[in-house]
Amino acid sequence: MAYRGYARFCRKEPHRTFRWWTKSPIFFVLLLTVVGCSAPTSLPPEPTHEPPTPSPIPATPTITLDVSATPGPLTAATPAVVVESSQTLPTTTVNPPAISLPMEQLRIYQPGPGSQVVSPFRVAGWGGPSYKDRVRMRLYGEDGRVLAEGTTWLHVLEGVAQAGRFYGEVPFEIHGVAEAGRLEISMYSYRDGQLSHLSTVDLTLLSVGNPQVYYATDGPEKLTIFSLREESIIEGGRVNVQGAGWVNTDLPLTVEILDRHGDILGSAQVYLDAPAIGQLGTFQVEVPYETKLSQWARVAVSEHSADIPGLIHLTSVEVWLKP
Q: Can you name the CATH fold of 223-321?
């Protein structure tokens, strides 16, 4: 029954139903929805055939270091930084010859170089061997005059040692307040008592005031003879003398051959081959000599002073000299 009624309602008055829907607000909402969904969409643009423009490569970021920042403390966790040394082209370096000098045979410990002394002043040193263990001390003024001289002795054990310490005291008198001076210490040959070694030290002599004494230490021989040894045999009328050392002036070295009386049998002069005054250098010279008989002689190399007259240093070796 309900089914037929529904059928009659739909069949007999369809125009009424349509009019009711068209007047309903729901109808307009549905209509707008359908129109919006069925609206034509815009077509996609046609593809272009132009080559793509390359994108710019982003610039490498620049790292700015803050040099004013204080670095943290180094710890075991701090990474190591390896710094490679720059590569340099190989160059030829000319090194000075390696020269080994023996220890100074006659050393002056007190007063040392540059000391300012008043009268009397104490002398201390080490040396030997020397004739009868005798050591000669002499003090020169700036004009070469002898202000004082005397003798002291080596403190050695007889039969055990030939070298030892020596001590002395030197009085002097000068007329001015101060002047340059030079203390000379010398030793002598066991065989003939002739001069065998000499060392000096430059001082400032004061007549008044407070002394200022420096102390020296052990050092190498100032002048050394390498080509000859003690008691070498020399013959043929010529002797080749080679050695090394340093000098205080630009004057040449004097090489002499002396007999047992101190007479000169031959001599020559040679300049020290050194980079500069006061630097280590070498020397070599051939010295002619004359002798009618075989005898003991001494080959001595000495350095002369340019200001205070006299010697600065002397070293020697004893040789057996033949015609």
A: Immunoglobulin-like (2.60.40)
